[in-house]
Design a protein that fits this description.
This protein is an alpha+beta fold and 201 residues long. The protein is 28% helix and 34% strand. It contains two helices and twelve strands; from the N terminus they run αββββββββββββα.
Length: 201
Amino acid sequence: MSTTPPFNACFRPTLRRTLAGVSLAVACIALQAGPALAHVTVWPRTAAPGAFERYVVRVPNEKNTATTRVEIHFPAEVRISSFLDVPGWELQVLTDSAGKITGAVWTGTLPPKRFIEFPFIGVNPKTGTTRLVWPAFQTYADGQVVQWTGPTGSKTPASATELTAPSSGASSMALWMALGALGIALASLGLSLRRPEPARV
């Protein structure tokens, strides 16, 4: 009689170990992604130098108490021009002695398990820097203040926007696509204007 164990008996322990490893990996990814979602961030994360950019401060509330105050300090290289009013929140614009906008403070009530966005317009620098850092401070109803001012990879990192010029390849592709669409439109217009030939008797 053969003493070789059945295939299923050999396969099941291996399958269990594989599934356990996959589950552990998924759990680790979830744990790493969870705190990242709770950060105060500024979007977009990439922008063009010299552009008039619509930025948004995104504030999630991961605690069981309300967020009541959000403060952000703007990079010195960015010229802030205007803000969008957010219902239920009061805006205080911070300026320096010369009148330049250096920061903003929003006060209101953000319940737990909710998020809010504060939009504003900024003019990016054309040269001189490739990375904009946005330090922020989140205050809760219990008095706790979380300072989102740390380096990338820390528990409380400051949000950052990378300034990258559009690639010439992407610009050329967009141009060719636009020219192609124009050609199709002109051809369609020509067909629609063509008069039908009279029917032969």
